[in-house]
Amino acid sequence: MRDAFGEVDPDEIDVIDFVEFDASAFAEDDEPDVATRPNRRRWVTPAAITSVIGIAVAGLLVWSPWRTDETKSFPDGATPNLTLTEELVFDNPPAELAAASLGNISGENQFFGGLSDAEGYFFAEPGVTWDVFAERSNGTWAAFFSVKQGSEFEPDLELDDSETAGTVQNTPAVIGSVAGGTREITFGPVDGWIFSVVSSDMSLPESLNFAEAVGVDDGVPTLSTDRVLGTMVPIGDIADYTVAVNTLIQATTPFVVQPGIVSVHYGDFDGDFEDGGVAYSIATQPVASGTTMAMLRFALGGQEGQSVHGQDAIVVDDMSDPFGAGGEVGSVVAWVEGGRLIVVVGADGIEATLALAESVRPATEDEWAEVVDVSEVSFIPDDVTSIQVGSGVTLYEGVDAETGTTFALTAQIGEDGAMSICTEQQSADAAESACDAEIFLDVSLLRYTDGPTGRQFVYAMVERGLGADAEIRITLADGTVDTFPLVELSADLPGLAAATVLPDEFELVELWIGEEVVATL
User: Fold this and answer.
1) Which of 135, 284, 295, 326 would bridge with 244, disulfide CB 3.0–4.6 Å?
2) Whole-angstrom Cα distance, residue 437 to residue 387?
3) In whole angstroms, what is the distance from residue 11 CA to residue 497 CA?
4) pLDDT in tens, 338-376
5) CA neighbor of 340 nearest in space, from 292, 281, 280
6) Does residue 454 surpass a pLDDT of 60?
7) Rg for the chain, CA atoms, rounded
8) pTM (2 decimals)?
């Protein structure tokens, strides 16, 4: 790791650095309104995300006298030795054992597929955090990741009408935007790598200068100069980012199964975060290197100054629901021990969850046998009879304009009215589905994100007799309001319903009944 600071020789200070202006890197208009194509591969959050960007013209590096123009490398360091088992349980569980995932499935992670082979690094001003689930940050940060040209997960370099073309490192670049007002620049190939740069609270010239500096040298992320960082400092690599965020996701729900992550869940799970859907859980996976806690702090925020088993811990009293259903998932405590990141989620206050975290220990042989038993049972609520592709009521159906794949959002109803909301895809080669359990309320307005594709839906259901003149209203960034009336789709559903793909440029989603707003997203 570089030594970022040190004594400064005044005779060696350059007052300012100029870079050659490249007009092809910028749009002609000052502020064109653009939005990101919904199906572009994204890497930063578990959802398909987009916003609006402004294009400006300029080309000055941020000047910091302590920075240098020497190439800086950011190795991820050696993987810590694993000295702690993955077979972890609470010493005195607060509820009955309900579900488990042993992490023994194969394939890429469903939320960050392909990043296991990527190289990249994050930089941020001290104290800055980015709530990946609420899609907002509180300051300046920048990151890049790169994948080999020709990879299955190679970022899309085709220019959409709503995006801006440019040139970065003498290669074609596509300039767009992602969640929370952040900007994305994708370019390449450079030495056989395709790069994506994401920045927050940085101007376009600053973001472009950062992109001009990034690189990969023998598999190690680099910057050709750290002057582009301004007041930012290195915080962690892309591998530790995926470890941190994926483990958080796994800990929040028993309905998620991810390769390499072991989780144990206790209590009643009804799929509704606002009504205690999380209960109590432990999730763990090996850390990638020594920056896991820094990346967790960046992604989660939270409070420091606490410890578990003598190790520094991060605590959060109310973490945002990572699946966009609203509400909080409960109290969260996370720490690194024995080469593992361990995340504990509790339905009670932070003091209770800290005590629960302190009680985490390796399971006995008999205790783990019980965990294995519950992991072999598909965790579907008792009142949902079955999940079968193609057998549900279609709430929405569409066709992917790029791939020609037919996709749908469907609902399947259990004996007691509990629902499973599913996304289904049908291509020439295969059919796929993914489902989440939901609890139907008299009036429901929810967002559903399809994990494998990142495609987002919004759907509403209103009990018969309450839904006269009910409709979903989606307000777009330009002020346009799209409406979707709730209708009688099927007698099998418990009410009137409507659904649609959530537009990238939406600003507000409301459920209206008559002249009254009854729910918002």
Assistant:
1) 295
2) 10
3) 71
4) 999 999 999 888 999 999 999 999 999 999 999 998 886
5) 292
6) yes
7) 24
8) 0.62
